[in-house]
Amino acid sequence: MRKKKAAAAPAPVPAAAKTKSAAAVPAAAKKKPLAAKKKAAAAVPAAKKKAAAAAKKRASGGTAGCRPRKRARDDNGDGDLISNLPDAVLCTIISLLPTKDGARTQAIARRWRPLWRSAPLNLDAKNLSTNDFKQPRRRQGRRPSTESIISRILADHPGPARRFDIRLPCISPTKREYAKSVAQIASWFQSRSLDNLEELHIHFPILRLVGPNPLLSSVLRFTSTLVVATVGYCDVSDEIAPSLNFPILKHLTLRYVNISVGSFHGVLSACHVLETLSLDGNSYNGSLHISSRTLRSICFSNCHMGKSELVIEDTPHLERLLCPWLDGEAIRGLVPTSFNNLICTVKVLALEFSCADLNAVLDVLRFFPCLEKLYVMWNKYLNTEMNNVRHYDPQDPIKCLETHLKTLVLKNYKGDKQDVSFAKFFVLNGKVLNEIKFGVSEKFNEKWVADQHRLLGVESEASPDLEFKHCSYYFRHSDTHDLSIADPFNNSFLAEDDALPVISCSSSSDEDST
């Protein structure tokens, strides 16, 4: 009988392991009661805090200790007062914003998203930048043209429109490109987005070496709704002129428009409530008569009239007559044909001559007895010859010099003998004159000003209330259609920067100093 093999004895444990194991047992035994003690100690204040929070919540009705709710983006609470306004008011605000900003209001909040399409469209091509209209990734390439952006906006907006401004310089080198531009404009005019258009500003494209082309007949669609209109760079034919009937038009600008005198008179007579008229760079084939019982402001700039006259008559509400850069002898026609037809409503008058022709200016002033502010601009390149001008007679004084003229502004003043003689006449004869501004086109200093004051008799002959200002000149005027501005030339004679001097003094201060 075979004997069973004895079981192998366990391997001996090293002495180091025995020591480590023996030490680990009491250490673990020590940690357990220590952790339990800490946990028990922490549970006591936590229970107290929880009980205190519960009591506070019961006392506050259940709202204390709760995280405040984040206000929804479209919540019209007190923090967003504008969004609380009625839709009609918000739509008016949007329609007054620049084109890009008006469209961006859709991203403000859900409340604003439908308002842009409900607001009257304000589309200004000058306010559009192709950089703001990126192509989708799948159609990477050149950025869209301004014309395509305008077409997209007109397609997205249902109308009506408040303002459409496409005064973009466009000179087409070929007949094909010109025809394309004209067809594009004609298609825009047929868009339903432009229904009930109130304000239209357009410069038509020009074919190189040919010049302006006929006014598009599609513009007639807006004649019954327009309140403001600017038309530039086109020919108004005698055939289309009778159709230009603007029953509610208040502000009209014609810029570089070829129109016959007869057609112009017909258009003007069809503007029954016109308040402001601006004619810039136009050509006329005869004497131009302005007659309107509603006009308050007339501005002529760069108008080519040759030997023709400009006659202002039957304008009982005229307040401003601005004639910078009016060439030829047209200035002679500004005066009425008889002494009985004075223009008593004009407060601001701007005239331009080739030199400081005092008698020519005085001949015009006779017919504006209530004039308060006079601008006289000297342009040596202007061919203005005044014929049959009456010389000033002290026995026959000019009424505005006696009772109304308070401010005289001289542009391109050089301080030579003729300029000084011109200005000194007003120093001596302007009975209520309290300010003379000298717009100096050349550099000057305090010594030059002191010499001018001596020649003008500031200390000895001028009224003590008369103030003299010498400024470096640059020409700038405000919108001549804005009747809320009392003086559209108010900022014309200013220093362009701090390096240019502005020297001001009054005759009373000079006398006091002496």
From TrEMBL:
Residues 399-471 form the FBD domain. It comes from the Eukaryota. This is FBD domain-containing protein. InterPro entries: F-box-like_dom_sf (IPR036047), F-box_AtFBL13-like (IPR053781), F-box_dom-containing (IPR055302), FBD (IPR006566), LRR_dom_sf (IPR032675), LRR_FXL15/At3g58940/PEG3-like (IPR055411). Coiled coil: none annotated. It holds the Pfam family LRR_At5g56370. Residues 1-24, 51-79, 127-146 are annotated as: Disordered. Residues 7-24 have a biased composition (Low complexity). PANTHER family: OS07G0285200 PROTEIN, PTHR32141.
